[in-house]
Amino acid sequence: MSNSWWEISVLCEPALEDLIFWRLEKFGCRGTVNQTKGNSILVKGYLPEMVVHMLDLAALSLWLCQDALTLNLKPPATDWKLIDEEDWASNWKQHWHPQEIGDRFLIYPAWLTPPSSSEREILRLDPGAAFGTGVHPTTQLCLEALEMRLSVDPKNLSVADIGCGSGILSIGAVLLGAKKVYAVDIDPLAVRAARGNRDLNNISPQKLKVGKGSIDRLQSQLKEGVDGILCNILAEI
């Protein structure tokens, strides 16, 4: 099966949800979604077939069970299957719906028609294969922190976003009034997604610069320092 993706499904107790997200991201999943199933949470992760083998998936299942037992929780039920690339693109979208975050944001999937008016800042998003849909708790916390930091006179503030993923935090900073945002990511798929989402939200490239790279790329772009840095990535990185 060409251009296939692994769909990893994990049915777990709500107390395990954050840990499952972390494990799937650390494992290399390019996209994750969740939905409520009765008293449980179903978390799904997606990654290209060529990236891992069956033994890797079996090892992941064992790690998840060990994590649960360490916390005295019921081990999650984990399974996986191969799906076509087109199926992957549509499967996870079925579970992602408009979501209010904090006091000011409304995250809206790009394939849905947004409301003509809203009291919230509508942030339209198509993450593609990049991390950052607003579902993960760390993304939500970062957006809420942005609200607090940019609540007073943000017009003269500049922000850097290292590991920008889909660009959700960078775009959020612009919508809250930041003067300029510099976003970088080492993943070319993330750079493409962030640029696409910038255009989707009618933000000019001059206001939100997106480039491939890391801190070195930022240093080459910045003539002076920034007022704040966003960095929603794994701790060991």
Can you tell me about this structure?
The chain has 237 residues and is of the alpha/beta class. The chain has helices at 17-27, 54-70, 85-91, 137-149, 168-175, 188-200, 215-221, and strands spanning 4-12, 31-37, 40-48, 77-84, 99-101, 105-109, 121-125, 158-162, 180-185, 208-212, 228-230. A 4-stranded antiparallel β-sheet has the order 2-3-1-4. Strands 10-9-8-11 form a 4-stranded parallel β-sheet, sandwiched between helices. The chain has a 3-stranded mixed β-sheet with strand order 5-6-7. α1 (17-27) runs antiparallel to α2 (54-70) and α4 packs parallel to α5 (168-175). The mean pLDDT is 87.
Task: Describe this structure in a few short sentences.
By secondary structure, the protein is α/β, with parallel strands linked by helices. It has two domains: 4-93, ACT domain (Alpha-Beta Plaits), CATH 3.30.70; 97-230, Rossmann fold.
Topology:
Elements: E1 4-12, H1 17-27, E2 31-37, E3 40-48, H2 54-70, E4 77-84, H3 85-91, E5 99-101, E6 105-109, E7 121-125, H4 137-149, E8 158-162, H5 168-175, E9 180-185, H6 188-200, E10 208-212, H7 215-221, E11 228-230
Parallel strand pairs: 6-7, 8-9, 8-11, 9-10
Antiparallel strand pairs: 1-3, 1-4, 2-3, 5-6
Helix pairs in contact: 1-2, 4-5
